[in-house]
Amino acid sequence: MDEDKIRLVQRSFERLIPISANFAAQFYKKLFELSPEARLLFKGDMKMQEQKIMASMMMLVLGLDNLEGMLSSLKSLGRRHVGYGVKPKYYPIVEKALISTMENILGDSFTTQHKEAWQEIYAIISKIMIESADEKEEGGQF
Questions:
Q1: 10 CB contacts (<8 Å, ≥6 apart)?
Q2: Cα separations (Å) of 137 from 18, 75, 116, 125, 140?
Q3: CB–CB of 57/13 below 8 Å?
Q4: What is the pLDDT of residues 45-102, one digit of tens each?
Q5: CATH number, position 106
Q6: Coil, helix or strand for 11?
Q7: Which of 130, 98, 93 shows the shortest CA–CA distance to 115?
Q8: What is the DSSP code (8-state) at residue 136?
């Protein structure tokens, strides 16, 4: 991923930080709209889950400058998601919910270039997570 695309992702994410609670709530609303069965994967307090996804996104977005350095953490995250019941078929649905929520919340400031940059980074990250699902745990936390 080139530096210009990384900056587009980082700048658009910065605009979400002040409204992170709203963004996360809207993201999950859209996700469950697109895939009602995905709701079954979430047990407990959704407010806590919303905080977790925003924290994870923050770490990912800030770490884009060193994706190689995050490889172990991304693989671990992928393995944990399997334990939660996440199947590869859910990744495109999550991407659609993510992009749709960003388009809705950021409006015209979320340009085609932003969308393409997010889609590219999402493809990279989801590929790592899916491929690591069957690997043995090597340690590392995300």
A1: 61, 62, 64
A2: 35, 8, 32, 18, 8
A3: yes
A4: 899 999 999 999 999 999 999 988 888 889 988 898 888 888 899 999 999 999 999 9
A5: 1.10.490.10
A6: helix
A7: 98
A8: P
* Nearest Cα residue to 12 out of 115, 95, 96: 115
Q: Which domain holds residue 124?
A: 3-134
Encoding tokens for residue 4? 């210009």
Runs of H (alpha helix) within 2-133: 3-16, 20-34, 46-62, 71-84, 90-106, 112-131
Q: Is residue 46 part of a domain?
A: yes
What's the CA gap between 79 and 130, in Å, rounded? Answer: 8
Give the predicted TM-score (pTM) of the model: 0.88
Question: Distance (Å, rounded) from C-alpha 97 to C-alpha 34?
Answer: 7
In the chain, the number of structural domains is 1
